[in-house]
Design goal:
Strand order of the largest sheet: 3-4-2-5-8-1-9
Strand content: 15-25%
Helix content: 25-40%
Number of strands: 25
Shape: globular
CATH superfamily of the largest domain: P-loop containing nucleotide triphosphate hydrolases
Number of helices: 18
CATH topology of the largest domain: Rossmann fold
Bound molecules: zinc ion
Length: 584
């Protein structure tokens, strides 16, 4: 009898059983039970392929015949999954295994459900949050009977026996890159290598492909296949700009929710439809500030502001989890005039409730989804129409499709564009386009409103017109001019130690040693925008290199050799040096 069943029927806990086992009344033994779900074996009726989809499938087959990787660029709602299903079916018929990679399994459970419906018993799931025992089972199956494995990035390490097809869905997603813990890798790039090794077909799919992949198309390394229209005659959403400069000029400016966005929300809620609001910052406000002396709440362990969470009435650091009580007065000057700086999802939720007291508002961010159950519940209640407005961080931009979302609002586009990173504009394009794609599904055209002070920024215009090719051409030209990936390779050395002196010393030593060999390609030591985390000082050394395999191999060897040398010097070996190739 199964232990859990026995305990339940006898209404006893584990200690009672353990005592009886000790006395030899029961024998406890372990038996392996496959956790492979009993899916639905009835054949699922799939919608016929549209002309566009048929055409795309034909082009994919052609590329596969030439062993070329395919980039499937399909606008949101164009039915990429339908095409994947065709390809998976073909692979399984040829007795090949399929690896279907997703950036985050939890957030994309709709796709997982769909694949379960179609492939039933043949589906296995694999990700790092699963219990080890279950992971071991999938691991064993991968080397044997497994047919279709849906996995997060770690799925690339499974020991496939006869992999025939790898699908990298949402290939642009930054969560394919693992930075911590080691090893550092980008699962998309590893998947390309694996496909070559297994002689398997590989298809990367996205509504907003990465510049790396767009570049590979231009270099004729990938075959690009496009799906430009939404499946089932649904039109793409209409995107409008709310020009905040104009709003201010005309004196009708309202913080957080502009007048045009409020009006659009009111109209949509009136019709019983749903709204998604996207703000990529969690907490109530990013920080608080003394209006008298300018003091802001900083973490004592890290070089970052503490985020104010109203719900818990505390200030917390998103880097080291330090928590402090919200001060009643300024610790520097004693003034009680402490104000809020910026906007987080928690405050956005409050503002929505003030303007629309009858609306049922949900919030999807790291703080409301600490358990998978909480996250599932939130998404399910939105899907069931028990919520009218969903406020959230980039979690709301990812993969879930609801039929009744008529309006999507991007609250602060400027924060996305101005983020200090060379990929900021690319991410802004991706996030805005992805979240826009949540609007308007069956029957009606959705509406998207983007609030910004930078209405003239080219990326805003490209998002509005859906001009992906224009975005790629312009952004690639900029990357080329300033010599950034995909035109070069980047290696970043992240140097950390509790003593500032040691950190600086080691950063200097590395810079000098690397410059000896690589000259101008090495920049350092650089003080990063967040220069201390958990009481560890941080300095970076950046190597920018030509995409020359021989040079890269030589550099790698040199770095390893230096690491070895430094680790033998007493003063330097305590300083941690983390090496990240192709950082994200
Ligand atoms: Zn003060
Ligand atoms: Zn901190």
């Amino acid at each position: 009898m199964e232990l859990a069943v026995l305990m339940q029927r006898a209404a006893v806990d584990h200690s009672v059983i353990a005592a009886m086992v000790k006395k030899g009344i029961f024998i406890l033994s372990e038996k392996e039970v496959a956790r492979i779900s009993e899916g639905n074996d009835d054949a699922v009726q799939l919608p016929a392929l549209s002309n566009d989809q048929q055409q795309a499938l034909h082009l994919i087959h052609q590329a596969f015949d030439q062993l070329q990787p395919v980039l499937l660029h399909g606008v949101t709602g164009s039915g990429k999954t339908r095409i994947y299903i065709e390809l998976i079916t073909e692979a399984l018929q040829n007795d090949k295994q399929v690896l279907y990679l997703l950036p985050e399994i939890a957030l994309t459970s709709q796709i997982v459900e769909r694949l379960f419906e179609v492939f039933g018993n043949n589906v296995l799931i694999y990700h790092s949050k699963m219990p080890d025992m279950e992971r071991v089972e999938v691991w064993k199956e991968a080397a044997g009977k497994a047919k279709l494995i849906i996995a997060a990035r770690s799925g690339i390490f499974l020991p496939f026996d006869r992999a025939g097809l790898i699908i990298v869905d949402e290939e642009h997603d930054a969560s394919y890159k693992q930075t911590s813990p080691n090893p550092h890798y980008n699962a998309r790039d590893v998947a390309l290598y694996l496909a070559m090794k297994y002689k398997a077909h590989i298809i990367l799919g996205s509504a907003t492909p990465s510049l790396e992949s767009a570049f590979n198309v231009k270099a004729q390394k990938f075959q690009k296949v496009s799906l430009t229209s939404r499946f089932g005659e649904v039109s793409l959403p209409q995107i409008e700009i709310v020009d905040l400069v104009y709003e201010r000029k005309t004196g009708r400016y309202k913080p957080v929710l502009s007048v045009p966005l409020q009006k659009a929300m009111a109209a949509v809620l009136e019709r019983g439809k749903q709204v998604i609001l996207f703000q990529n910052r969690r907490g109530y406000v990013p920080t608080i500030q003394c209006k008298n002396c300018g003091w802001t709440a900083m973490c004592t362990n890290c070089d970052v502001n503490l985020t104010y969470h109203k719900y818990a009435n505390d200030l917390s650091c998103h880097y080291c989890q330090q928590r402090k009580k919200n001060p009643s007065h300024c610790p520097d000057c004693g003034s009680q005039d402490i104000g809020e700086l910026g906007l987080g999802t928690e405050k956005l939720e409050n503002v929505v409730k003030q303007y629309f007291p009858n609306a049922r508002v949900g919030r999807l961010d790291f703080d409301t989804t600490r358990t998978k159950a909480a996250q599932d519940k939130l998404i399910l209640s939105f899907a069931r129409g028990e919520l009218d407005v969903m406020v959230g961080t980039q979690m709301v931009t990812k993969g879930f499709d609801f039929d009744h979302v008529a309006l999507v609002g991007v609250i602060d586009a400027d924060a996305l564009i101005r983020f200090p990173d060379f990929r900021a504009v690319e991410r802004a394009y991706q996030l805005m386009t992805q979240v826009a794609g949540r609007a308007g599904r069956r029957q009606e055209m959705g509406k998207v409103m983007i609030q910004t002070y930078s209405a003239e920024h080219p990326v805003i215009k490209e998002v509005v017109s859906g001009n992906f090719e224009g975005f790629v051409a312009r952004e690639l030209a900029e990357r080329k001019q300033f010599w950034f990936p995909p035109f070069c390779r980047l290696i970043v050395l992240d140097i950390r130690h509790s003593s500032l002196e040691n950190t600086q010393l080691v950063a200097k030593e590395w810079t000098t040693a690397l410059q000896d060999r690589l000259g101008e390609r090495v920049k350092g030591p650089i003080v990063p925008s967040i220069s201390r985390v958990r009481n560890q000082y941080i300095r970076n050394v950046v190597i920018k290199m030509e995409k020359d395999d021989a040079l890269i191999t030589r550099t790698k060897q040199y770095i390893l050799q230096l690491k070895d040398t430094f680790s033998q010097i007493k003063e330097l070996k305590m300083v941690r040096v983390n090496i990240d190739v192709d950082p994200y």
